[in-house]
Amino acid sequence: MAQTTVKEKTIVSGIAGWFKKTFGPKYWDSLKFSLYCITHPLDGFWDLTHEKRGTYAAANTILFLTILVRILALKYTSFVFIRVYWEDINIFLYIASILFPLLLFVIGNWATTTLFDGKGKLGQVYIGTCYALTPYPLMQFPLMIISNVITVNEAQFYTVLAGLSLVWCGLLIIAAMGQIHEFSGAKNILFMIFSLFAMLVIIFILMIFFSMVTQALGYFYSLYREFMFRV
Q1: What's the number of domains the chain is made of?
Q2: For the segment 1-28, what is each residue's pLDDT rounded down to a tens digit?
Q3: What DSSP designation does 86 have?
Q4: What are the C-alpha distances in Å from 141 to residues 4, 6, 81, 131, 147?
Q5: DSSP-assigned letter for residue 77
Q6: Upper half-sphere CA count for residue 169 (Cβ side, 13 Å)
Q7: Strand (E) positions, the chain?
Q8: pTM of the prediction?
Q9: Whole domain around residue 125: which residue ranges?
């Protein structure tokens, strides 16, 4: 019993230490720093990576809030703007539809820029991309609430602000990649295009891989059936 108690105390203290380290003052400072990044993108994203102002915990929080707001918007945005047929929605596939393109971009951008003297590491690209998503939950959440009190004649107001949040995020991602990799404006835009092309290449490779795996599984399954039939 004494040993069990000591082990439990060790586990609890370890979890408490991890929680304090992960969500301590540095976490809150790095999370608040996202507000500086979206208003001062050049200085903000430079400090985010080169001055170690960003953390994985804060980046994951921003990504989680982005996904959460997307899901909440499906339910609580006025039907005037979004019509949702829940029987046709798989929430896990919906979440994957957000995470998969983001991860593809992170990997594609890192892979292409690494070949041409890009300074950013894979983790820095991920953190910078997540921080660039900050305007989305900040704008979309209040818009979700506002959508239920405005009229159809005021719908243009909602549409413009919703589009602005996406454009803002896109511009921040471009600024973040430029500062992370230390690219000039033209070179940064060029490699953003290359990153999109790399995403398509990765998708093509994954499709071939899964097709080969499916065919292999089908082949071994047919062998198994043939063996069982003869036995």
Answers
A1: 1
A2: 445 565 555 665 556 555 555 667 888 9
A3: G
A4: 46, 45, 14, 17, 10
A5: S
A6: 21
A7: none
A8: 0.83
A9: 2-230
